Amino acid sequence: MARVVVALGGNALLRRGEPVRASTQRENIRRAAHSLAQLMAQGHQLVITHGNGPQVGLLALQGEAAGKAAFPLDVLGAETEGMIGYVLQRELDNAHAGPARFATLLTQVEVDPGDTAFRSPSKPVGPVYTEAEAGQLAAQRGWSVARDGSAWRRVVASPRPVRILEIEVIRLLVEQAVTVICTGGGGIPVARRADGTYVGVEAVIDKDHASGLLAAELNADALLMLTDVPAVYTGWGTPAQRALGEVTTRDLAAMAFAAGSMGPKVQAACDFVNRTGGLAGIGALEDACAILAHRSGTRVVPAPAT
Hints:
alpha/beta; Carbamate kinase; eight-stranded mixed β-sheet; four-stranded mixed β-sheet; 38% helix
């Protein structure tokens, strides 16, 4: 049996270009739950995280459309943790055969208010736009926008996670064989004041970096980052693109990947493997079991000692 932190990408829960509707998300989460149930049926102990980029962006837009002051991103992050966690927990209950215990935990994650990410927003949130629409919204609402594939999206600060405040609670639950859904959307971003108290900050923490930190803190055997593509590719979008199978952290360090998409996953995978010596896998949701069995996806392993 392996202890596995599974990070469900926002694009695995809401496929690129799909409408952000409750029915669409529910069907995709049901599909995700069946893949996770297969891992559990093999005897693996799971801790589950998830993305929230499309959902947190939609909540912000809904607040503005209603003529209300938009809630800050830390509050929206908490809302999406509860919303996605509830549906995921329910579908896991339905998909898993046999006794199991599930719990969804709102998770605060400390960030450094001096992180350079606050000066260079890069995390895509919300729906996709044309270049003209994105430019208009940026002018109207003071957004930062950037290209995301062939489309454009709003981008916000994505500071690195420093500490998971609820890590001891998560450890207690894991030790009691509870399947924990936590650190959703990278966690609720908070910063520590000089007096030791905490305050929410306007950011969205990268889910993959937070998941890697969580996996290391829990001494997990593996970190699986599941998304809507089957592997990490070199030369993505070109005739020379090539899927990576088993690859070492040293080899990955010599390659370049897009900062707004695969880059954080690759860096989080390398950080986890270098810190723990475990396995990090990146690939499609439906290939979760095959990735863990080294038969599919990209598997990141330690570099041989020199």
